[in-house]
Amino acid sequence: MRTQNTANPTSAGTASSDEPIIGLSGVDFGYTSTPVVEDVSLRINHGEYAAVVGPNGSGKSTLMKLMLGLLRPDDGIARLFGEPSHQFDDGSRIGYVAQHASASKEMPITVREVVKMGRFPHVGFGRLCEDWSIVDQALNTVGMTAFADRRVTQLSGGQRQRAFIARALASEADLLVLDEPTVGVDMESVGAFYDLLDSLNSNGITVLLIEHDLGAVTEHAERVICLNREIYFDGPASEFIESDALARAFGTTANLLGGSQ
Ligand code: ADP
User: Is 131 helix (H, G, I), strand (E, B) or coil?
Assistant: First the structure.
């Protein structure tokens, strides 16, 4: 783990080093009067590789939305890059990769065009050549150069996710947030996908994974945050395996190799 963004040498990377990328303090949230997230406090620091795990309906996606300012806490404080999360508006610093990257299925555009979208926040006169070179570099980093002119609709699930990671790299994101990114990705590509995340993290990108596959989490992430409305565990992946948090949060059906349900 490194604390500088060397994968994106041109990245702004401006948050001060002692300011966490994400800071939650005593956060409570419910869509109704029933709490979905309760008294959650955590920091995600620059360069970390952290995974949020928990059974279905345990509040993982809600927590992610609170972190990113898409929801506001009922109580407590959520900060993103040093600002109240709901006020943060520099989307280029966050690369979000959704499950299936499903929006892309409808778009009749090429991989290179998808990646180029990552440059939109940086658009300016005279930058065109530089922008295309950043796009090509991002494609190369994720191993998608050969697919640059292919339509996104023609890609496999794993290739599509790589294209969306390349878009995040092109936007020079400091933080990569992935919501169950390998759902629907063929088994052969899953390993290579996690290797790519490992490599990006080694080059300084902060990775926050929402993940159902506990095997992948414990193998790749350095830190596990186990949630079931409240935090059951927050610490090194190696300690999570040994802890009783797994059984307490997931129930007795949990197993590390086959997922949680
Ligand atoms: P997870 O991502 O762990 O599956 P979620 O954060 O999606 O969990 O959901 C946590 C709880 O909040 C669930 O009971 C779910 O039904 C409820 N929930 C999620 N989104 C909404 C919403 N938009 N409106 C009302 N309830 C919701």
Answer: helix
Residue ID of nearest Cα to ligand 1 atom 22: 31
* Residue 60 CA to ligand 1 centre (angstroms): 8
* CA neighbours closer than 13 Å in the CB half-sphere of residue 134: 25
Question: How far is residue 131 from each of residues 2, 51, 89, 118, measured CA to CA in Å?
Answer: 26, 31, 22, 10
Q: Is 54 exposed, middle or buried (0-12, 13-18, 19+ CB in 10 A)?
A: buried
Spacing, Cα 257 to ligand 1 middle (Å): 25
Nearest ligand 1 atom to alpha carbon 58: 3
Tell me the CATH class for 91-221.
alpha beta
Neighbouring C-beta atoms of residue 189, cutoff 10 Å: 16
Domain extents for the chain? 21-89+222-253, 91-221
Spell out the per-residue pLDDT of the chain, length 261, in tens. 333 343 443 343 444 557 899 999 999 999 999 999 999 999 999 999 999 999 989 999 999 999 999 999 999 999 999 999 999 988 889 988 887 655 455 668 899 998 988 877 776 555 666 678 889 999 999 999 999 999 988 888 888 889 989 998 888 889 999 988 888 787 878 888 888 899 889 989 999 999 888 888 889 999 999 999 999 999 999 999 888 888 888 876 555 444 444
Find out whether the beta carbon of 73 lies less than 6 Å from any atom of ligand 1: no
**Looking at the domain that runs over 21-89+222-253, which CATH code has it been given?**
3.40.50.300
The answer, yes or no, to whether any atom of ligand 1 lies below 6 A from the CB of 167, is no
Q: How far is the CA of 217 from the centre of ligand 1 (A)?
A: 22
| CA of 64, closest atom in ligand 1 | 6
